[in-house]
Description:
Elements: H1 12-24, H2 30-39, H3 51-59, H4 70-76, H5 81-105, H6 118-131
Helix pairs in contact: 2-3, 5-6
Amino acid sequence: xxxxxxxxxxxxxKVLITTKNLYLNHxxxxxxxxxxxxxxxxxxxxxxxxxxxxxxxxxLFDHEIIIMDDYTKKALGAKNYIDYTQKxxxxxxxxxxEIDSIISxxxxxxxxxxxxxRWFKMRVFDQYLWSIVEN
Length: 135
């Protein structure tokens, strides 16, 4: 996860504390977390948001968070995080049957039961989105 470039030097512990505090307050909001990073003076340069970093870090605490990155955002043609999550969910709903079918066909769940977890299938779908973006 190449998110370090979003933050000022030596802010790692504060970034994690900010993320953890938001999560422990039962707020699982990527946009709010990004705003907290900005307001806390944690972002590098003249950055005003860190949605990609916020989604990745919040996912460490809540595997239902939809991770955004530049490639998947491009694949979905999304403009912002709300638009992104709507498009991501719609596309995921169309592909989940195919993902389940492949797991069943190749009996991948015999390898490790984690493969049946929804969050794992969400990450598989992210891999699919990465594969359709022209580099």
